[in-house]
Specification:
Layout lengths: L1 E5 L4 H10 L4 E6 L17 E3 L5 H11 L3 E4 L6 H6 L1 H22 L3 E6 L9 E2 L10 H13 L5 E6 L1 E3 L8 H10 L4 E5 L3 E2 L1 E3 H13 L4 E4 L6 E2 H11 L7 E5 L15 E4 L2 H5 L8 H11 L1 H4 L4
Parallel strand pairs: 1-2, 1-4, 2-3, 4-5, 5-7, 6-15, 7-12, 8-11, 9-14, 10-15
Antiparallel strand pairs: 10-13
Helix pairs in contact: 1-7, 2-4, 4-5, 8-10
Length: 308
């Protein structure tokens, strides 16, 4: 296949490109690509080309030239605080970008893969199934949900809702990456919340799940997360244990209000997803999050190595 990927420069894009480029021709694009980066940039990916998901005409030209068999949209403003502060840009990127992809997929008669989030739910329930009605709380969640609605206009749409992402070592800007940044800076104590629950999602397994749905032509909306659930505290404890630092690092339990100034965007108390649709169809390829985290630490040993 020829796969046109938008927003491929991040942690999920890294996993997607490495996997799909082995057997398919992948046109990997991102807003921040090679021509805007220094050659010394450690994250410089020679396979990454420039494309703005907000630029419909540019994307249309690319589709006309590349003639993809599928469009995959990973592009998004993912910082909840940036979305609250720059609402128009969040709408244009997350919702408008998805609408651009949907229009092109429909025009060229090809499937559209859209990556959504567990954050589209309000957190008032403990678990959410594929059929629960979204009720997004913040700008980020609202724009991602609007992106879902745009994707649903494409006859052959695959919408995957992921949880707390982890993967790709140095490109990991989520919870694991933030914890590692503190540890690498010499922190001996971590302040972690227990009042936020979710389902960790390993980018490697998530990519395999995307592949499974594409190859089986399974269209629709799917919750796609690793097996099991956790609080942020549970994840931190597991990570510290895997690093063999349980006797050196103290983990303090704090409420979300402790980070209210830094993380001011509304967040649901629970982002725990149930993979009912994947399970019912026998399509679930994702493993328990603890197993995935252990593999992640092993595979990126250099990234997880701390100075004495």
């Amino acid at each position: 296949m020829k796969i046109y990927v938008l927003g491929c420069g991040g942690m999920l894009g890294d996993a997607v490109y490495k996997h799909f480029s082995k057997d398919h021709r992948v046109l990997a694009t991102d807003l921040v690509a090679n021509h805007t980066r220094s050659i010394e940039d450690p994250f410089l990916d020679k396979w990454l080309e420039y494309q703005d998901v907000r630029d419909f005409h540019g994307m249309h030209y690319t589709c006309s030239e590349f003639k993809p068999d599928i469009i995959m949209n990973l592009a998004a403003m993912t910082s909840l605080e940036e979305c609250e502060s720059y609402t128009k840009n969040a709408i244009d990127t997350n919702a408008g970008g998805s609408n651009n992809c949907a229009m092109l997929a429909s025009k060229f008669g090809i499937p559209y893969v859209y990556i959504s989030t567990a954050g589209i739910f309000d957190g008032k329930k403990e678990h959410y199934t594929d059929w629960d009605k979204p009720n997004p709380l913040c700008v980020y969640a609202k724009t991602k949900y609007w992106g879902e609605l745009a994707a649903q206009t494409v006859p052959q749409h695959i919408i995957l809702r992921c949880g707390w992402q982890m993967g790709s070592g140095p490109k990991d800007k989520k919870f694991i990456g933030k914890v590692m940044k503190q540890l690498k800076a010499g922190a001996t104590e971590l302040n972690v919340v227990t009042d936020k629950q979710g389902t960790p999602t390993y980018t490697k397994d998530f990519t395999l799940q995307i592949d499974k749905l594409i190859t089986t032509r399974s269209y629709g909306i799917f919750n796609a997360v690793c097996k099991g659930s956790a609080t942020r505290y549970d994840v931190a404890v597991e990570l510290v244990h895997l690093l063999g630092l349980q006797d050196k690092i103290k983990i303090n339990v704090v409420p979300s209000s402790f980070f209210a100034e830094e993380y001011f965007a509304p967040r649901p108390a629970s982002e725990k997803l149930l993979t009912r649709r994947l399970d019912a169809r026998g399509l679930n390829v994702m493993r328990p999050w603890q197993e995935c985290l252990a593999e992640y630490v092993t595979e990126y040993a250099d990234y997880f190595k701390l100075e004495n």
